[in-house]
Amino acid sequence: MIGRGENLVGAADAASEGRVGQDQIEDRPFLRPGETLEVVPGLIATQHSGTGKANQWFLRGFNLDHGTDFGLTVEGVPINLPTHAHGQGYLDVNFLIPELIEVIRFEKGPYHADVGDFSSAGTAQLETMSVLPQGLVNAGVGQDDYWRGLLADSPTIGSGRLLYALEAQYYDGPWEDPENLAKWNGELKYTLGDATEGLSIAAFGYTAEWDSTDQIPRRAVQEGLITRLGTLDPTDGGKTMRAILAVNGWRGAEDRSRFTAYVSYYRLDLFSNFTYLLDDPVNGDQFEQADRRIVAGGQATQDLKVDIAGFALNNTFGLQLRSDFIPQVGLYHTQAQRRLDRIRDDTVNETSLGLYAKSETPWTDWFRSTIGLRGDVYYFSVASSIRENSGNEWDGLASPKLGLVFGPWADTELYANAGLGFHSNDARGTTIQVDPETGEPASPVDPLVRTKGAELGARTAFAHGLKSTAALWWLDVDSGDPLRGRRGHHRAGAGRAAATARARQLLEAARLAGPRRGLLALHAEFPRRRPAGGHIPGAVEAVVSAGAALDLPTGST
């Protein structure tokens, strides 16, 4: 089992990458599944508008909204959702069960050829357990009517192991109007074989329904209309479900072959009211964002080791294919969750193909390099309720990567990384011609947005039980022109993520003292001369995460 204390000197390609296992995860208290990913140094997961909604993510000085530029895969399945009703790259991890996570591998920056869309700030790959140390029957009770139950085990079935888990949760929260969160989670995973050759089939199921208390006007509290925990629209809330089926296979030790195939179904109905009676004093300003989709895809990789002129090259070749079939991504004006009129309603097909190759070469016993090249092609097809906004669009980008590693000397390595990356825009913005709210002409956006990054870092395990990393990095993201979810159109520079600023320069450091104690810190210093001047709205200047766990002896001596 992998813990935070694992020494990655000699194995990592960058100072900002790492991996964390269940040993570290089980020591952390969690209120929400999204907080599990806070084991990634510098990552913050917050929540608003109800527990069933996707987290608000912050990483490397960026407010990533609900997932733009932070990518996640679970059992090889990409979880971010492009062209989503609420926000591009929507990352909802509420289907995760923290006790079942075996390992989280994380990377930062656009330096890694095996990841593409939504990964410029960072990415994580999560794998769940195949075998539990022992069966689990957990029950939790907390304030504000918090109830949680978990049943899980992994018996031997035939020649493999079947992991099963069922989670149920209810939560009202501190609000005057109870949240009434009702959530059900389940996982089945059947695993055959061993580390050299094997197959796993995993299925996830998740459903949730909730009421939400959103942001409120300060003057309404000051005038005594509502309390700080009250709301002006008690009908806000949502319901969602997700089902995933994933098949993973692997063969070989050195020249290793791997494949993943997956299909998933997703649904969301989200009701929000940010301005209450500003636009419609009679019916109110509540709106619904609806999303229905089927996602299918897969990936295949092949490791190939060859000797050229006395140098051993460790090569990896990969192919990734994904299609999102979205019969409904809609925006509606509602009152008490009843539709009054349609703002826009679209059917979208979005397909992406990614090809990559990377080669690691140990030139000497103290210097190795990794070069990579990634190519991505995207196809968008939009059938809109507004005829002028229908159409098709293509785009593609090539993204080279480079990593240099010096050392180790005294269990210490130095790293230099650079690369180009990208993130995609909402497909509806690539074909838009008419503003659905005003009827005025609108300009389409670029389908793919270029990102650029570089990093200098160090990693050391020189002192016994003390492991440290430090990285000085730079990330430049062109304006993403994000779709404004409650308006149904795009506005350049309106996003809370990459579009708020183009360049960030930060220093981050992590110091890990033993497998049970840790201090993780990130400090941000932004360029002093920027066209906009002043602080960047929504950005996080400094993040400090610290904790301590005490293991008490059990059993008899």
Question: Which SSEs are present, and which pair or pack?
Answer:
Blueprint: E1 18-21, H1 22-25, E2 44-46, E3 56-59, E4 62-63, E5 70-74, E6 77-78, E7 101-108, E8 122-128, E9 136-142, E10 146-153, E11 156-157, E12 160-171, E13 181-193, E14 197-211, H2 218-222, E15 237-251, E16 257-272, E17 287-308, E18 311-335, E19 338-362, E20 367-384, E21 391-409, E22 412-424, H3 427-431, E23 448-460, E24 466-477, E25 483-484, E26 489-490, E27 503-513, E28 517-524, E29 542-548
Parallel strand pairs: 5-8
Antiparallel strand pairs: 1-7, 2-3, 3-4, 5-6, 7-8, 9-10, 10-12, 11-12, 12-13, 13-14, 14-15, 15-16, 16-17, 17-18, 18-19, 19-20, 20-21, 21-22, 22-23, 23-24, 24-27, 25-26, 27-28, 28-29
What is the number of strand segments?
Answer: 29
Average pLDDT score: 88
Assigned CATH architecture: Beta Barrel
Give the helix proportion (percent range): under 10%
CATH domain fold name: Maltoporin, Chain A
Domains, number:
1
CATH superfamily: TonB-dependent receptor, beta-barrel domain
Distance between the termini: 26 Å
Which segments are poorly predicted (pLDDT under 50) over 5 or more consecutive residues?
1-5, 491-503, 513-534
Main beta sheet strand tally, sense and closure:
19 strands, antiparallel
Q: Tell me, what's the shape?
A: globular
Structural class: mainly beta
Radius of gyration: 24 Å
For the record, the CATH class is Mainly Beta
In terms of quaternary structure, the protein is single chain
User: What is the beta-strand fraction?
Assistant: over 45%
Number of helices: 3
